[in-house]
Design a protein that fits this description.
With 138 residues, the protein is of the alpha+beta class. The chain has helices at 10-20, 28-38, 44-56, 101-108, 126-137; strands at 61-63, 72-74, 81-85, 91-94, 120-123. The chain folds into 2 domains: 1-75, Arc Repressor Mutant, subunit A; 78-138, Dna Ligase, domain 1 (2-Layer Sandwich), CATH 3.30.1490.190.
């Protein structure tokens, strides 16, 4: 689908604008609820179709969080890692270098070609750690 010219859509532009300034990697439901404020007649299906199109054309990144979790969407398409808080479910960008060397390492142990990787780090975010400490102290 790369290289395909897409008809401009005000709804798609609104979805992109909403994602542009977000660092929390919202779900389609969150995007839908916010875009509906500007376009009250937009359907959830339209939001999903546009998110699929935007991710397939490389304008946004779709983060598949596993079978039991909703997909999240990221405006930042550069290779980077994500942290998932096991307490509150927040999905946060990791400010660290992308470890491209892991692709070469994996390729040495695989009979094929490695083209990239996805890694999620799990644990407790700083906000949840702070709340836990407050509860223990209080």
């Amino acid at each position: 689908m790369a290289g395909t010219t897409m008809k401009r859509s005000r709804q798609r532009e609104a979805i992109l604008q909403f994602l542009k300034d977000r660092k929390d990697h919202p779900t389609a439901d969150t995007i839908y609820a916010n875009v509906r404020e500007e376009f009250p007649n937009i359907s959830l299906g339209t939001v999903y179709r546009n998110l699929t199109l935007l991710s397939e054309t490389g304008q946004i990144q779709k983060l598949s969080m596993g079978a039991t979790a909703q997909d999240r969407y990221d405006y930042n398409t550069a290779p980077h890692y994500h942290f998932i808080c096991t307490e509150c479910g927040a999905v946060l960008d990791m400010e660290m270098e992308n470890l491209e060397t892991i692709d070469r390492f994996a390729e040495k142990h695989f009979d094929g070609r490695i083209e990239g990787h996805v890694a999620y780090f799990y644990g407790t975010c700083a906000e949840c750690l702070s709340k836990m400490a407050s509860v223990r102290e209080g």
